[in-house]
Design a protein that fits this description.
Elements lengths: L1 H12 L4 E5 L19 E6 L6 E8 L2 E5 L5 E7 L4 E6 L2 E8 L2 E11 L2 E6 L5 H12 L5 E5 L2 E6 L3 H9 L4 E7 L2
């Protein structure tokens, strides 16, 4: 179960071979944050639903984020605010944008309640659901398919109001992270 949680977490955090992307950091026109706000900083973990055991930990700091395993060892996975990792705050949602080549990948962080964050993306990894999700999105904004080596990007260019509509309609899904310190 721990492995499943880890795989899900990484697939949500890092881009994968099939991803909805953007031409620029989202939402377009919103200002980038210079540092991560104090209320988001801390250590967050997933818990195994069966055992309640804490898994790997996401640590959010003023400058970005990094990960530790359950043995408190740092491991691969660090992001520093820069021109390739941009965080914006718009309508009570944190938009985490990271650049992959010429594409911007987006993750959302929403404060669900004090100490609980929702970590969201448009999940199109499941082949059986991808076509349907992209078909529905394309009714709202044009979708451009881009091939790069073994990766496929489905680029959209929504206005901020179109992006917020996609969020409200449930296209962004994900996991909960609970603050542990």
């Amino acid at each position: 179960m721990r492995l499943l949680i880890l795989i899900l977490f990484w697939s949500l955090l890092l881009y994968s071979c099939k991803e909805v992307t953007f031409r620029e950091p989202q939402p377009a026109g919103a200002s980038s944050l210079k540092e991560i706000p104090l209320k988001l900083r801390g250590s967050y973990a997933t818990r195994d639903k069966a055992t309640g055991e804490i898994g790997d930990t996401l640590i959010i700091e003023s400058w970005g984020y990094h990960f530790k395993d359950k043995n408190d060892q740092d491991w691969l996975g660090k992001g520093t605010l820069s021109d390739s990792l941009v965080v914006k705050f718009y309508e009570n949602i944190y938009f985490v944008n990271f650049k992959e080549g010429d594409q911007w990948v987006l993750r959302l962080v929403k404060e669900k309640s004090p100490g609980v964050l929702e970590f969201l993306s448009i999940d199109i990894q499941d082949d059986s659901k991808r076509k349907e999700i992209l078909r529905k999105i394309s009714r709202k904004v044009p979708v451009k398919e881009i091939q790069r080596n073994d990766d496929t990007f489905y680029q959209i260019n929504p206005t901020p109001s179109q992006l917020m509509q996609l969020i409200k309609e449930g296209y962004f899904t994900g996991i909960e992270l609970r603050k542990i310190r």
